[in-house]
Write a structure and sequence with these properties.
The protein is of the alpha/beta class. The chain folds into four domains: 5-210 and 416-493, Response regulator (Rossmann fold, 3-Layer(aba) Sandwich); 211-355 and 497-541, Response regulator (Rossmann fold), CATH 3.40.50.2300; 558-608, no CATH class; 619-884, Rhopdopsin 7-helix transmembrane proteins (Up-down Bundle), CATH 1.20.1070.10. The chain has an eight-stranded mixed sheet with strand order 10-9-11-12-13-19-20-21, with helices on both faces. A seven-stranded mixed sheet has the order 1-5-2-6-7-8-18, sandwiched between helices. The chain has a three-stranded mixed sheet with strand order 28-30-29. Strand 6, helix 7 (169-182) and strand 7 form a beta-alpha-beta unit. The radius of gyration is 52 Å and the shape is rod-shaped. The model is unreliable at 1-46, 196-201 and 447-463 (pLDDT under 50).
């Protein structure tokens, strides 16, 4: 019970306001007035019963959390002190906290190096997990002897120097409210309270690491296993508000979404159980109905009692991965002895780092209710943990099982009691040593003159506990296990956290396995470590790593598209658009590859583009080079044939110089095609188009000159013709030079204004980087082609009209046909050239050069070679005249 008026029965609402009245007792109240005020009449018998005292020169107080009191409403028809407390329930696992404090006090008193000649004692009270019990127990610690008289000290019996507690944050808050007034140091071994202006709590020291480290560890754990869709379960208290407002936003910033955030009802013995069952069913259905397989649970030490209650509500429970905070312990109440604990099998928990202290287990095993002890906690613990009743002469004969007193604690299940020291017990152990070291330091630093020893007891001239704070702020020491104990500027212990895997086999035993840690001294990127192979998952997951996401990961090649109105972890996966890729899972958007790469078919990888140019090494380049050389060789053979038969009538009849010039031009045209093969270089880019244009212009000019010469020669044979003066080599040479010179002028302007240059085209082909010659000025390039086409058309027209002249003079028929071939090739070149890219564009131009040149060579010279080589008898002047007639 948390003590708030809204949760109390009518009787408690009347009783609870009496507690603050204790603070109104006058400060100078003397011993004789105690009976007059009857303050002790408020004490319940159980509140006096659960205490553990060991005398000493200096007393360390402690508030334990072990016993729940069950109440029922009363009509005050009888003594309310007897009617209110009907039964109790013991959180048996917390009894180790009491043993840890007693063990630490024993070690300190036996250590001659710490506080020599001074003994430490302790006085432990129970908080009963409620505000009233905590306030009353705290007031008893700071009061005189056994009398509850605040602000008054009748003798020097109380030498309280520090108080250890509490386990949950509400207990710590109630304690801090009172201890802060008296400046008494408070060592909190559980979670720190949520302080406010009215309750500053500036004088407590947290013996657990700062909670910020724990939440960083939880986020790192979730991100490590890619658990981005989780549920959150907290207790319905003030600490839950702190978590919702300050902690969970950090989860969202790390990309973690929440399927649900639920608050479990606070576990008290004043709860409306019908309402609690309804809330439990609702939370159970929310947890089991969610597709989140991971749940972060933040609560106090006994929250596990509620978690183990959930599977009892329904048989439809399925496995979940519970991530517990360090405040939670695997604990059970007595009535949960036979309950199925598989719900927490495979859970992960952050715990305070602890060590197994030498001699502690022996000390625990020596605990026995049969011996004489001042331990008021032991009797109820023993009875509930072993389900028996210790003999009590006042009760007479009982029907329950009688405890022998020889039961063994080591036989108990881990959910009821553990022999190895837990994290909270280790914090209590360190708290005792912190008190001892700080008192030792205070005495060693010159304050001995203010402290005297009288009859073996420490007698202080004034209250000294407040002076401990100055030494505590700089306290740093190594405990008996070599672990360093020191506080940060906020009074929190600087220590790491262990990550524990809870394993609950079918026999309901319990095992802790350390699988990782959070190290505050390590670099940020190395603070979190986890050993996945050591983790045992819940059997529901078949020993495979659980998956907890709202949406299955978008595979590479896809991107996320948010679902409207849903958390950002819930999305659809859509394929990447053309030209883009995503090379990782769950990418928010696809991106383009660099210019040097292109997407593969799955659009999940950028592949380096291949360098593309027309190479001699590939079949296309080799074939074109072969044809170019072959045609050049044929042209050379034709030229040689004509030179060898240069005196024959057939060679003479058609202007030998023009014939030789044409053959040389065609020879160079074929060789010119080789300039287009191979990687583009600065020289080849400058030369190849201009050389091709000029050489072809010379060839066509020769064809035009030959045609015109044929026409003029025919006209000159007519009687009285004035054309005779034009017949001769001068006119032919003039035509060739003038027509060629004009093309040279065009090419010169091209090279001067905007010359071609080597270029790289990254975008023309999706999978290739094109090495090409940029023409510089496309206009000039097409102007060269247009001019060649104009010459070819003129040659065709002239040859067409001259084709019916007598054969003895006439080769116009062959020229006309060659011009048809030439114009057809270059006419189809333009659209084909424009529709291709890269090396295929170059191949089209080479093919056009070879085809048009071969057309000229074949159409014009093949008939003549036929006559020269195969019909040499016809290559005679008389035969030519005869054929002409």
């Amino acid at each position: 019970m948390d003590g708030t008026p809204s949760q109390l029965t009518t009787a408690h609402k009347r009783l609870f306001p009496l507690i603050p009245l204790w603070l109104l007792i006058p400060h100078m109240l003397c011993k004789d007035h105690i009976n007059k005020y009857k303050v002790n009449d408020l004490h319940l018998p159980l509140y006096e019963y659960h205490t553990f005292y060991q005398p000493g020169d200096l007393i360390t107080g402690a508030i334990a959390s072990q016993t729940f009191l069950a109440y029922s409403s009363t009509a005050f028809t009888e003594d309310p002190r007897q009617a209110l407390a009907e039964e109790l329930a013991v959180v048996t696992k917390n009894y180790q906290h009491i043993l840890a404090l007693a063990f630490a006090i024993k070690e300190v008193n036996e250590n001659s190096h710490i506080l020599p000649n001074i003994t430490l004692g302790f006085h432990i009270y129970d908080s009963y997990f409620n505000a009233k019990g905590t306030y009353q127990s705290t007031m008893k610690l700071i009061s005189t002897g056994k009398k509850l008289v605040p602000n008054y000290k009748c003798d020097n019996q109380n030498h309280l120097i520090a108080v250890i507690g509490g386990l949950d944050f509400q207990t710590s808050l109630h304690m801090a409210t009172l201890l802060d007034i008296y400046k008494i140091p408070q060592f909190i071994y559980g979670s720190a309270p949520v302080m406010n202006v009215k309750n500053p709590g500036s004088l407590f020291y947290q013996m657990a690491p700062n909670e910020g480290l724990q939440y960083e560890g939880i986020i790192s754990l979730l991100l490590h296993f890619q658990w981005t869709w989780i549920g959150v379960l907290t207790m319905d208290d003030d600490n839950a508000e702190k978590i919702l407002q300050t902690v969970l936003p950090a989860f969202s910033k790390s990309g973690i979404c929440f399927s649900f955030i639920e608050r479990s009802p606070t576990f008290t013995f004043l709860t409306d159980y019908e309402d609690m069952i309804q809330q439990g069913l609702r939370i159970h259905d929310k947890i089991m109905g969610s597709n989140a397989n991971v749940l972060v649970c933040h609560g106090n030490s006994y929250s596990m009692v509620f978690l183990m209650w959930l599977p009892q509500l329904s048989k439809t429970a399925k496995g979940k991965v519970w991530i517990m905070t360090s405040q939670m312990e695997f604990t059970s109440m007595g009535y949960q002895r036979t309950w199925d604990k598989q719900i927490i099998h495979g859970s992960l928990s952050f715990t305070i780092q602890s060590n197994n202290l030498p001699g502690f287990q022996e000390f625990v095993m020596s605990t026995n209710p049969s011996g004489k002890t001042r331990d008021g906690f032991l009797r109820d613990f023993w009875q509930q943990v072993f389900s028996c009743v210790l003999p009590n002469p006042t009760l007479g004969k009982v029907e329950e099982k009688i405890c022998s007193g020889d039961e063994k604690l080591e036989t108990l299940p881990g959910s009821f009691f553990e022999m190895s020291m837990t994290g909270h017990s280790y914090s209590i152990y360190n708290s005792v040593y912190a008190v001892a070291h700080v008192v030792h330091a205070m005495i060693s630093c010159g304050l001995r003159q203010r402290v005297t020893v009288n009859r073996g007891r420490l007698k202080s001239q004034q209250q000294e506990s407040w002076q401990l704070h100055r030494f505590l702020r700089g306290l740093s020491f190594n405990n008996s296990m070599g672990d360093k104990v020191s506080f940060d500027h906020n009074g929190a212990l600087i220590a790491g956290l262990d990550i524990i895997n809870w394993i609950v086999p079918s026999n309901q035993s319990f095992q802790r396995v350390k699988v990782g840690r959070m190290d505050p001294w390590a670099p940020p990127d190395q603070a979190f470590t986890i050993n996945e192979e050591d983790i045992t998952w819940h059997t529901w997951f078949n020993q495979t790593q659980p998956l907890s996401v709202c949406t299955e990961s978008c595979q590479p090649g896809h991107s996320k598209k948010m679902k409207e109105g849903e958390p950002f972890c819930c999305y659809n996966c859509i394929p990447c658009p053309g030209g883009k890729i995503s090379d990782a899972k769950d990418m928010n958007d696809c991106y383009k590859c660099t210019d040097e790469n292109y997407p593969n078919k799955k659009q999940d990888l950028c592949i380096p583009k291949e360098i593309s140019f027309l190479s001699y090494k590939e079949p296309l380049g080799t074939s074109l080079a072969f044809f170019a050389l072959s045609f050049a060789l044929v042209t050379g053979l034709v030229l040689g044939t004509f030179i060898r038969h240069h005196n024959t009538p057939l060679v003479k009849a058609n202007n030998r110089s023009l014939t030789y010039t044409l053959l040389i031009s065609l020879y160079l045209c074929f060789l010119c095609a080789l300039l287009f093969i191979g990687p583009p270089e600065k020289v080849t880019c400058l030369v190849r188009q201009t050389a091709f244009g000029i050489i072809f212009s010379v060839a066509i000019s020769c064809v035009l000159a030959k045609t015109i010469t044929v026409v003029l020669a025919f006209l000159a044979t007519k009687p009285g013709s004035s054309m005779r003066k034009w017949v001769g080599k001068r006119l032919a040479n003039c035509i060739v030079l003038s027509c060629s010179f004009f093309q040279v002028g065009i090419c010169t302007v091209w090279l001067v204004t905007s010359p071609p240059f080597p270029d790289v085209d990254m975008h023309a082909a999706a999978e290739e980087i094109l090495l090409e010659c940029n023409e510089g000025s496309v206009t000039m390039f097409y102007l060269v082609l247009v001019y060649m086409g104009l010459l070819a058309i003129v040659s065709f027209i002239v040859a067409f009209f001259a084709k019916k002249l007598p054969d003895i003079f006439n080769e116009a028929r062959f020229i006309a046909f060659s011009m048809v071939v030439f114009c057809s090739v270059w006419g189809s070149f333009v659209p084909t050239y424009l529709s291709t890219k890269g090396k295929y564009m170059v191949a089209v131009e080479i093919f056009s050069i070879l085809a048009s040149s071969a057309g000229l060579l074949g159409c014009i010279f093949s008939p003549k070679c036929y006559l020269i080589l195969l019909k040499s008898g016809l290559n005679d002047k008389r035969q030519l005249i005869k054929r002409g007639q």
